[in-house]
């Protein structure tokens, strides 16, 4: 009976720690969102820049009274999430760390730094490559007598989906680092399922990019490279784990 109570208390303490880490993470997002809202005009102008580089003009329209107000808070919330991402990754790793060995806990800084930098690289890739190409493709398939008048709500929804999707996809090497550091993932396993990963990459690319084959292939190329990089990361981490044993 005492053993059961001790196990139950340990489980409840674990849930309490999870609750407080979620509270801290949510607070960080809120603070980041408030900071972002103070610079929202600069952020919106930056996100609208791709619409000015297409061969055919794109006109954005607000179709509701509260449209711009909702958009500003929506973009502020997304920006707050990105700004607070290093802290969010740190909270996640700190929650997992007590179950790791001492030599595995030293990966906390590489995980936080690598996770944030990979996400930013993915967002930049989406902003500089996928978004301009997609806007050029879709605005160019119209006819001369029809103007490209898009809802600004739809544009930012479209943009957010692409940028966050690209950022999350670029977390593949980070996932490889985490799973390899706790002994779940090995390079031999990833090499064995390399052909299967090609199918998974094409499916993931089709969900992230607009429904055209060219955009899907553009996204598939860096995904394939990321998978190969993940194999290398897994090899390095597993080699170090074997040396420490």
Please tell me about this protein's structure.
The chain has a two-stranded parallel ribbon. It is flat, with a radius of gyration of 22 Å. The chain folds into two domains: 1-167, no CATH class; 171-245, no CATH class. The chain contains eleven helices and two strands; from the N terminus they run ααβααααβααααα. It is mainly alpha-helical and 245 residues long. The chain has helices at residues 2-38, 40-48, 67-83, 85-96, 102-105, 108-140, 152-169, 172-181, 187-192, 194-208, 213-244; strands spanning 58-61, 148-151. The model is unreliable at 1-9 (pLDDT under 50).
Q: What is the compact description of this entry?
A:
This protein has eleven helices and two strands; from the N terminus they run H-H-E-H-H-H-H-E-H-H-H-H-H. It is mainly alpha-helical and 245 residues long.
Report low-confidence residues grouped into runs of 5 or more. 1-9
- Count of runs of 4 or more consecutive helical residues: 11
Percent range for β-strand residues: under 5%
Give a short account of the largest sheet: 2 strands, parallel
Write the layout of secondary structure elements.
Elements: H1 2-38, H2 40-48, E1 58-61, H3 67-83, H4 85-96, H5 102-105, H6 108-140, E2 148-151, H7 152-169, H8 172-181, H9 187-192, H10 194-208, H11 213-244
Parallel strand pairs: 1-2
Helix pairs in contact: 1-3, 1-4, 3-7, 4-6, 6-7, 6-8, 8-11, 10-11
Annotation keywords:
2 domains, 3% strand, 245 residues, mainly alpha, disordered N terminus
């Amino acid at each position: 009976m005492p053993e059961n109570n001790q196990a139950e208390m340990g489980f409840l303490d674990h849930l309490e720690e999870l609750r407080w880490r979620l509270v801290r993470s949510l607070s960080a997002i809120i603070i980041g969102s408030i900071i972002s809202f103070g610079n929202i005009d600069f952020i919106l102008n930056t996100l609208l820049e791709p619409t000015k580089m297409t061969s055919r003009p794109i006109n954005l329209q607000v179709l509701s009274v509260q449209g711009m107000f909702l958009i500003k808070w929506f973009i502020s919330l997304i920006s707050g999430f990105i700004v607070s991402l290093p802290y969010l990754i740190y909270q996640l790793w700190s929650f997992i760390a007590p179950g790791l060995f001492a030599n595995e806990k030293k990966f906390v800084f590489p995980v936080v730094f690598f996770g944030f930098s990979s996400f930013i690289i993915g967002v930049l890739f989406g902003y500089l490559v996928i978004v301009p190409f997609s806007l050029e493709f879709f605005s160019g398939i119209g006819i001369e007598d029809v103007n490209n008048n898009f809802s600004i709500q739809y544009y930012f929804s479209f943009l957010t989906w692409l940028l966050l999707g690209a950022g999350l996809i670029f977390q593949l090497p980070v996932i490889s680092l985490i799973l390899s550091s706790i002994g779940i993932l090995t390079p031999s396993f990833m090499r064995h399922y390399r052909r299967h990963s090609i199918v998974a990459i094409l499916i993931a690319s089709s969900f992230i990019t607009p429904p055209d084959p060219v955009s899907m292939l553009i996204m598939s190329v860096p995904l394939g490279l990321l998978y190969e990089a993940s194999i290398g990361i897994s090899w390095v981490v597993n080699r170090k784990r074997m040396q420490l044993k």
